[in-house]
Design goal:
The protein is mainly alpha-helical and 96 residues long. It has four helices and no strands. Helix 1 runs antiparallel to helix 2, helix 1 (2-26) packs across helix 3 and helix 2 (39-49) runs antiparallel to helix 3 (51-61). The protein is rod-shaped, with a radius of gyration of 22 Å.
Length: 96
């Protein structure tokens, strides 16, 4: 009975790791934060390969803490985005 209980605990731990990796991958806001690949590729890898896919994601694809911190701060440290374009005819004519 002890071996069966230990097997269940290991299985639940693997399942929890798999679910955590899948949720972690889905919550990444943009593909540029991944070390490699895209969100779609990593979700497919995690789903199809199970625990092995989750481990591969954690080692090779998961964004590092700096990328996550900049994503939470609202940017990647680059220049701010340009303002939206102004439609023609909405500005007064230039002075002569």
């Amino acid at each position: 009975m002890r071996a069966g209980g230990a097997l269940v605990i290991v299985w639940v731990a693997f399942l929890a790791l798999w679910i955590w990796a899948l949720i972690d991958c889905i919550r990444v806001p943009d593909d540029r934060y991944f070390k490699s690949g895209t969100k779609v590729i990593w979700v497919v890898v995690i789903v199809l390969l199970g625990i092995i896919g989750a481990i591969i994601y954690l080692l090779a694809g998961r964004p590092d803490q700096a990328a996550r911190a900049s994503a939470k701060a609202g940017g990647d440290g680059a220049e701010p985005p340009l303002p939206p374009p102004v439609p023609r005819g909405s500005l007064p004519p230039p002075p002569v």
